[in-house]
Write a structure and sequence with these properties.
3 domains, about 450 residues, about 55% helix, Beta-Lactamase, Heat Shock Protein 90, single chain, 5-stranded mixed β-sheet, alpha+beta, Helix Hairpins
């Protein structure tokens, strides 16, 4: 069984070339066989007529000498002259073997018929083309046979064609082998790259200069490897962060639990420790909820219940729910909400507004401002949430909606660190509703998130 693409390409092309050569050789040989036979036969007949004319102008006693002289003049041809009286004049055979004409053929030509062996399979006794013509001389009937000396022209042509065909086959086979190497080499590089990627090595760069489909494929694989490398780094960072986020509250809970076991704690201290334990437990709960939520959305089995929603009222309720957060930081909240009704999943959209508002409040310094605006388009609603917070650096902006991603250190250490899943969940929910989300931000000036939602979601 042929297991390599190189051999398959080489064998297929070779077979195609060989079959093409065989067919073309057969067709052209057949064509030129007829053409060459006709031409040589015509020339031989002309030569026979000239010999007859020459013989008719000589003396009868000089017939044998005349035949020998004419044969020498027509090098490569053999002359045979037969009379009805039984006289025979045969020239030297020349470069080829003696051509023997069968007696029935001689008698047929003496009777007035013409003879030609061109286009027929030659007898072994006369492996050359021959022409026989009758004529009368001095009252006696004669039969003149002119035979080609040496190999027949057709056989010479067939031999040349045979050698030329095999020369072309050898040269084409060599060129096909080189072409197959050229075609298969990029595939070998691509195969090796995919094996590395499958083994977890994403540092793959394919240097293939071709601009055809293989070049596009190599470029796509290089891009995929780069993206997988980024995802792997984010995954490792996420595991580290989540481990830290889980370990920190667990450590606090364990420490406070030990303190609660001590005797002599007054009620106020005991209540403080209990509140801290409750706070850390809620933090763990939020982290697990986000992980479960994202896993549910990714599975595409998340139950969505689309129904008419008064979007402006939902946004007001979300702002009121965040009141303890923005009032503690003395933030100005501005609402510019046009009345808009959309058909969507209420619970999912509530989580979108909660996540975006929490981020805006978290990263806006005390005394800042958060603006929530709602516009009604012809087919979509546009929600804009803008803040005057610390902003996001340009290099971080393309990645903020990636799962597991957390922006630069200034944001990580501002108001604590999240898991990097909030905006990933937001984007997934918006995508499920057929909408889109846009972000623009400037460092130390603020961030604006704009969400486009179709008024009627196709779910």
């Amino acid at each position: 069984m042929i297991r390599t693409l190189y051999l398959r390409i080489a064998i297929v092309i070779c077979v195609v070339v060989w079959i093409s050569l065989a067919l073309s050789s057969t067709i052209f040989t057949h064509y030129f066989r007829n053409q060459l036979n006709n031409r040589v036969e015509e020339l031989t007949e002309n030569a026979a007529q000239l010999v007859i004319r020459f013989i008719q102008e000589t003396e009868p006693q000089q017939l044998g000498q005349t035949v020998s002289i004419v044969a020498r003049l027509n090098r490569g041809q053999q002359l045979q002259l037969y009379s009805e009286t039984g006289e025979r004049y045969i020239s030297e055979p020349g470069p080829g073997p003696q051509c023997v004409i069968a007696e029935p053929i001689i008698q047929s030509v003496l009777a007035g018929d013409t003879y030609s062996s061109f286009g027929e399979e030659h007898d072994d006794e006369c492996p050359r083309g021959s022409v026989g013509m009758p004529f009368e001389y001095n009252g006696t009937r004669y039969a003149l046979f002119v035979s080609q000396g040496g190999p027949a022209p057709l056989r010479r042509m067939e031999w040349i064609d045979f050698r030329m065909t095999w020369t072309i086959v050898l040269i084409s086979s060599l060129l096909i082998a080189l072409a197959a190497i050229y075609l298969v080499r990029p595939l070998k590089k691509i195969t090796e790259a995919t094996r590395k990627i499958a083994g977890g090595d994403f540092n793959v760069k394919l240097h293939i200069r071709q601009k055809d489909e293989l070049g596009v494929l190599a470029e796509s694989i290089t891009h995929m490897a780069a993206e997988l490398n980024k995802m792997e780094k984010m995954r490792q960072e996420f595991v580290s962060n989540v481990s830290h986020d889980i370990q920190t509250p667990l450590t606090s809970i364990r420490g406070f639990s030990k303190l609660l076991q001590q005797d002599g704690l007054d009620p106020e201290e005991r209540m403080g420790y209990l509140k801290l334990i409750e706070s850390e437990s809620e933090r763990l709960s939020r982290l697990s909820e986000n992980l479960l939520k994202l896993a549910s959305l990714d599975s595409e089995q998340h139950p969505l219940d689309p129904k008419p929603i008064q979007l402006d009222e939902q946004l007001r309720r979300s702002v009121v729910a965040c009141e303890p957060l923005w009032s503690a930081k003395k933030l100005d909240i501005e609402l510019e909400l046009a009345p808009v009704t959309v058909i969507a999943d209420e619970d999912s959209l509530s989580q979108v507004w909660a996540n975006v508002l929490h981020n805006s409040i978290k990263f806006t310094p005390e005394g800042g401002r958060v603006t929530i605006a709602l516009e009604s388009g012809e087919r979509q609603a546009i929600v804009t949430i803008a803040d005057t917070g610390i902003g996001i650096s340009p290099e971080d902006q393309p990645n903020v909606f990636r799962r597991f991603y957390k922006a630069d250190a200034s944001r990580r250490h501002s108001e604590g660190s999240g898991s990097g899943l909030g905006l990933a969940i937001v984007r997934k929910i918006v995508d499920l509703h057929g909408g889109k989300i846009e972000l623009s931000s400037r460092l130390n000036e603020g961030t604006t998130i704009r969400i486009h939602l179709p008024k009627k979601t196709a779910i």
